[in-house]
Amino acid sequence: MALEKFTYDNKLAKNFAVITIVWAIVAFLVGLIAAFELLYPSVNLGLEYLTFGRLRPLHTNAAIFAFVGNGIFTAVYYSMPRLLKTPMWSKLLGQINFWGWQLIIVLAAITLPMGLTSGKEYAELQWPIDILIALIWVAFGINMIMTMVKRRTKHIYVAIWFYIATFVTVAVLHIFNSFELPYSFFGSYSVFHGAQDAMVQWWYGHNAVAFFLTTPMLGLMYYFIPKVSNRPIYSYKLSIIHFWTLIFLYIWAGPHHLLYQAIPDWAQAVGIVMSIALLAPSWGGMINGLLTLRGAWDKVREDPVLKLFVVGVTAYGMSTFEGPLLSLKTVNAISHFTDWTIAHVHIGTLGWNGMMIFGMLYWLFPKFYGVKLYSRSLANTHFWLATLGMLFFAIPLYFAGFTQALMWKQFTAEGYLKYPNFLETYIQIRPMHMLRAVGGTLYLTGALIAVYNLFKTANAGKFIRFQDAEAENEVKHVEHHKGWLNHRKIEGKPVTFTIWALIVIMIGGLVEFVPMFIGPFNNHPELTINVKPYTPLELAGRDIYIKEGCFNCHSQMIRPFRSEVERYGEYSKTGEFVYNHPFQWGSRRTGPDLAREGLPFDKGGKLKKPDAWHYEHMINPQKTNIQSIMPPYPWLATKDIDMDIIPAKIRAMQTLGVPYPEGYDQKAVADLQKQAHGIAEGLRKSGIEVEDQKEIIAMIAYLQRLGTDIAN
Amino acid sequence: MSNEKHSNYSVNEDSQYEIDTLTNDRLLKDHSYDGIQELDNDLPPWWKWLFYLTIVFGIIYLVRLWVFEADDLVQNTEYKIEVDEANRLYQASTLSQNTELEMKVLTDANSIAAGKDIYDKSCAVCHTADGGGLVGPNFTDDYWIHGNTMEEMFQIVTNGVLEKGMTPFKDQLSPQKRLEVLSYIVTLHGTTPANPKAAEGDKLDWPY
């Protein structure tokens, strides 16, 4: 068979590699600023755009989609042509992928600080950007699939299996979780409500971790570790088994983010069981990565690239051991809503994602520029700073999470909460948060050293854009395989492979969602709660709550524990959230839970405060408590509620099934003004000068409404 | 990449395998992607057993929940058990210590210090740290809305003033603690706060 000649074009991979570094620095820096805001609320300089509630989504989006996202594209566009012995199918689609993705990131960096958010974690971007993401992602996928179709190798390699799973699953997750009904160009409501929305969101959220931060990284690992170490993959059989089991099981695990919350026991149980079963498939990846290095450990000692890979894969093993552990109800009862989760995810991102991507960059830059790495010792310094940074980040947060959870749960001998004041439990862990900021600083410093090192490397050489290659076209070869090797057949049929991957990842989601969309979805069947739709003012307040990102620090989900019921009031019921588009249960209690903030004491409430207190507290939290780390929100008292949009919001809610009376959209503004006037009058009587139409009035109305339906 | 065949290690006539010289493991023939080869190692046995074990765990878990509705897996039952247990425990302990608390200002340094600690954590958010008042009334002046005897104040701290937003502390503070914090509040009378709130209520004699 004749050898065919072709050329690899490195330009796209190089561009993605460069932009990866830029976004890495941005993501780490924003994260560090957010860490300092939790220590000193004045770090936001009094600007609404820089409050923790708006910056934290920017940090997570930048880390996941900008840094890791571009890292993934770098790996795919570099490795795929070489693994398939053909250039990428379309340069145009590649360009669209590159510029489209950067545009999305820039739009995110503008809209998130502006408070344009859908209020769902890791999916905060508003609907026009969601559509753009879907289009760009499909362009990426088509280019991959067509490249596989045009390949010269007979089979597709395991790295590409993971790339395929990444493409199909992220497409499904993103599109389904982004079903939202727009009421304006930059506003929309999730079509799912309450517990339903929570299930969809964490199916998405968990699998964003699985299929954006894990499977493409495994693809990266399967190409770069054997390539850099020049060693064969440890076990092909293990690749097959752990690939299919991993993608099948992962998709089920979402409900483990909702343990002890207002979703049915069966859904929680399925989430737990599948998460536990994920341990071995996850470790299959780690084993295959680390054992591939057998016979090359001498190189690992020398080569900073391999060192980064080894720590990266080890961090993967640690966090995938911890994941199932955190999915056990007994552990989750402690870990959830605390810093434990924050520590866990940062082992994943700083360790697994960060180390793998930087390792790849240290190897690629010399290849791109035809020179040796500028400084091996600087790369080693980076390695140590990154490793120490990760540990300094995570270990204090483990202590912090554990400490705070125990304080929340501790009772005195007489049966009172030992620490009834929430802030006290936060002050206790503040030193740990300082250490975390030190860890973040170390990690960022390491990354800055990498920037310098890679810049000097690029500067020393000249970019080698085209690389000639030759290969036989094996696609038409006939083969006969038996036993395990039957998998070879499907490896020779990439489109069939893609369809199978799609089927496998759909099963878990379907089984978990179908019951939620057909039957009644309630874990408290004995209870009928007379839930009323939000008044227009409360709805406006809720949208401000979402805009300010309050859910980044305050949960609205009281779990059925005595300690939480004592502190916050009756535990949350599924039915209470039926008009919540989107749900706002939150995932970390940096501040206290607000699920029953408005419930009066004589109705079982524990926390209700007068309107005047809410006013004073939001304008200046340090006035009500000097140690509070909540930033002041003075702009709420100067900005007007957007009245023009109210009818559209009411109509959108009606479309989603919220039972406002026919034609209510036209009466809503009058109702809003009436309710606002009542609240503002009360405040004026307490000596607070405020106008009826200010945003803070809507916020107060919303907060005073929270959790009160149970009293109806 | 060497394509040389090691016939001494091949397992069938197609000579399916070559050998990796560093580990002596079998390499799969025709598995070469951009120079990356793959070994034909089996699944590590401990890994397989780990996987089986987690599956067995899952089956047992689901059976316990769905068939036996085990108490420790059904969320609402778990909660009921926890609360029942607590009630049993504290009924016994409150019965034993249910002696009448004397409504008397505590003056010893320890009680005052304990009272201040509670005040700073629970009261200062509305009455400010120096007692000058913010949302809640001023403690430093001579004016009182609901009386200033120990009995009256104890009643307020215990049951709150719902219409004004005063929190009932009966679920948060033991009677002894309520007495301590009131004893501390008494010490604030007559002090000069930074931003005193305007007087509310009636001017009353100071009984202490």
* DSSP strand content of chain A: under 5%
Please indicate the count of domains of chain A. 2
Name the shape of chain B in a single word.
Answer: elongated
User: Which chains share the greatest interface?
Assistant: A-B, 84 and 66 residues
Task: State the assembly state of the protein chains.
Answer: heterodimer
- The count of DSSP E runs of length 2 or more, i.e. the number of strands of chain B, is 5
Helix content of chain B: 40-55%
CATH class of the domain at 109-203 in chain B: Mainly Alpha
Summarize the structure.
The complex is a heterodimer of chains A (712) and B (208). Chain A is mainly α. Chain A is 62% helix and 3% strand.
Overview of this protein structure:
- The complex is a heterodimer of chains A (712) and B (208).
- With 712 residues, chain A is mainly alpha-helical.
- Chain A folds into 2 domains: 11-512, Cytochrome c oxidase-like, subunit I domain (Cytochrome C Oxidase, Chain A), CATH 1.20.210.10; 545-711, Cytochrome Bc1 Complex, Chain D, domain 2 (Orthogonal Bundle).
- In chain A, 62% of the residues lie in helices and 3% in strands.
- In chain A, strands 1-4 form a two-stranded antiparallel sheet.
- In chain A, helix 8 (236-250) runs parallel beside helix 18.
- The longest helix of chain A is centred in the middle third of the chain and has 39 residues, at 422-460.
- The mean pLDDT of chain A is 95.
- With 208 residues, chain B is mainly alpha-helical.
- Among the domains of chain B are: 7-39, no CATH class; 109-203, Cytochrome c-like domain (Cytochrome Bc1 Complex, Chain D, domain 2, Orthogonal Bundle).
- Chain B has 5 helices and 5 strands; from the N terminus they run βββαααβααβ.
- Chain B has a 3-stranded antiparallel β-sheet, with no helix packed on it.
- In chain B, helix 3 (109-127) crosses helix 5 and helix 4 (150-159) crosses helix 5.
- Chain B is elongated, with a radius of gyration of 37 Å.
- Classes of the chains: A mainly alpha (712), B mainly alpha (208).
